[in-house]
Fold this protein.
Amino acid sequence: MKNLRTIMLSAIISGVLIVPGLPATADAKDEKGHHHFQKSDHHDKWKAHHGRRDGYRGKDHHKRGAKHYYRRDVRRDNRGHRNKPEIKQDFKDVRSARKEVQGSRRDLRADYQELKRDRAELRRDIRNGASKQEILQDRREIRGDLKEISRSRQELQQDQARLEAARLELKNDLRKR
């Protein structure tokens, strides 16, 4: 009996403390930071947005003649810019510069692999007690590989500079329109 009274008394006290806070929770924002009821219509009407995405425009936004409120619609902005010959050429230049950079990276990787193989061969020759002539030849190959790597790096830097210049030119031409 004493436990029942304690439970009832604690339920009443907690209810009394919770009830005054209910109006404050009704105005609370959801996790996105938006009120559940907000003026989202362009005609200052209040609409409920329970569980809808921000881009929701109603049932008839696909219908012909429906009002479309957009700040920037990529389907309508900058139409036909790829048809201009200078912009087409800029896209081709960027694409070819990318391919050059990929090829240079591929060559640089191959040079590093060759250097790795030559160093392993030198270690093997030293371990197995090869002649001085073979060891000198392996070291010459390693020096040649290092020179080839430095040339490949310079080519890669030049190709990257060409790619950056082509991208910049394309950006400028797209801005001109």
Summary: The two ends are 85 Å apart (CA to CA). Residues 81-176 form one domain. DSSP finds four helices and two strands in the chain.
